[in-house]
Amino acid sequence: MADIRIPDYYKGKTILVTGVTGFIGKILVEKLLRSCPEVEKIYVLIRKKKSIPIEKRWNEITDLPLFNRLKIIDSSLLKKVEPIEGTIDVKDLALSETVKNEVINTVDIIFHSAAAVQFSEDLIFSLRNNTLGTYNVAEFARSLMKLKCFVYVSTAYSNCDKQNVAEEKIYKSAYDWKTLIEILNVDPYPLSILRDKIKGSHPSTYTFTKALAEDVMDHFSQYYPVMLTRPSVVLSTVDDPIPGWVDSLNGVSAMFLSVALGVVRVINGVPTSCLDYISADHAVKALIIAGWKLGKQEKRNGIEVMSVNYGKDIKMPTSWFFEQQKQLTENFPSVKSAWYPFVIMVSNPLLFWILFLLLQVIPAYMVDFCLMLLGRPPILVNLTIRYVQAARGPLKSFFHKQYAFPNNNFNILNDLLYEPDKKEFLINSNKYSIKDYVYINGNGIFKYYLKEPEMSVRKAHFERLRKIHYTTITIFSLIGLLVLYRTINYLIQNCTIPLSDLF
């Protein structure tokens, strides 16, 4: 099987995908169907949401523009997908007995991408979804009769609490995952009380619980082959199947949007700090190649770790990226903009709080006061409070530290491809410039995430914000000059020292 092509490897295989309602999961299923059309079946695990049937939730997903290209090529391929009701935070994924037996007897490959990705989640919720959830999927995988490989989607920031992450390998967590799961199942209350102590130097419960989940997968790799992937900050798709596809934002990406919409104007961070990025379609290609790479080796067990990031190939200083988002908004304004976009990034904490008060807090109260006069609910003060909580907590380290992740295993993926597979799976990070990535990502957010109206409406709204912005600056400048004038005038009139004595 060593010389088998990627579509041929997945031919006739049955796949289980978790996290299909999430950003990566949707793109993964679409890519598998379109580029590996002879796959036998794809089970997609979907949690029942209120009274909405899982079939309806899946149909809503396939109605998205993401699937348009697949439908043009062959819409019948969607029939290969079978939604199954379940949840990862329950033993055996809460599958019905009939479905469970069917999955056990047919599934060859698992892609586990389900996760609680919000940086602000409490520890109990993150543990239940990221650590216990991964344990449940991994334990269930032991019962599969035909399992050939398990591809787990972690994060490049799972070990960001450590000083030196020089290799693509498992770095053991300070806490034992078995103990924390036991506490979670018996009495989770102490976990909330000791949240900050337990997560230690991790910036968020997300990175902490994903690190524990890596330990879980390391444990289960004694039973079957595991490919542990670590994507960095995931941007929109760059061109496959469409440019700019994005339908959810979390953490750092949400901060970028906040800057573009004028909600965030002052950031406490080091302007030269760089975050690591990967486009969503390149990340998904890496997952599929990784499954093929591991599966065709026909290993009985063991774990391989692969960072999924551009590394040194594409470096984006954080301050530069924020500035690009601002410029993008000027060219493609949004009707959802709260203020004319501008951003100042400062590393000095005192200067940050002074600027934050002047440029963030006072304008927020002004806008909310005007909204209340118009009979509309206030929004900016609450958004400002949420921003402070995020900036002082989970996002702080991302804008102050310089992260560098080894990605040798990712860099060799293109070399592993056979020539016929390069058309569908080549990860060409040099095809676009850094500005292209920012432009495609930002435009995709406005088009697919914000669902913006016609450009004429957006420009009119933006022009109003521009006038308000510069009017506000003018008013504050005049007030400042008036205060300065009164101060100087007061000193001159009340000065008891002859001017000649000063020289």
Automatic annotation (TrEMBL):
SUPFAM superfamilies: NAD(P)-binding Rossmann-fold domains (SSF51735). Its EC number is 1.2.1.84. Keywords: Lipid biosynthesis, Lipid metabolism, Membrane, NADP, Oxidoreductase, Transmembrane, Transmembrane helix. The gene is 106670325. It is an enzyme of class 1 (oxidoreductase). Residues 17-286 form the Thioester reductase (TE) domain. This is Fatty acyl-CoA reductase. One of its GO terms (molecular function) is alcohol-forming long-chain fatty acyl-CoA reductase activity. The keyword Lipoprotein does not apply. Belongs to the fatty acyl-CoA reductase family. Pfam families: NAD_binding_4, Sterile. InterPro entries: FAR, FAR_C, FAR_NAD-bd, NAD(P)-bd_dom_sf. GO terms for cellular component: peroxisome. It catalyses: a long-chain fatty acyl-CoA + 2 NADPH + 2 H(+) = a long-chain primary fatty alcohol + 2 NADP(+) + CoA. Catalyzes the reduction of fatty acyl-CoA to fatty alcohols. It comes from the Eukaryota. Signal peptide: none annotated. PANTHER family: FATTY ACYL-COA REDUCTASE CG5065-RELATED (PTHR11011:SF116), MALE STERILITY PROTEIN 2-RELATED (PTHR11011).
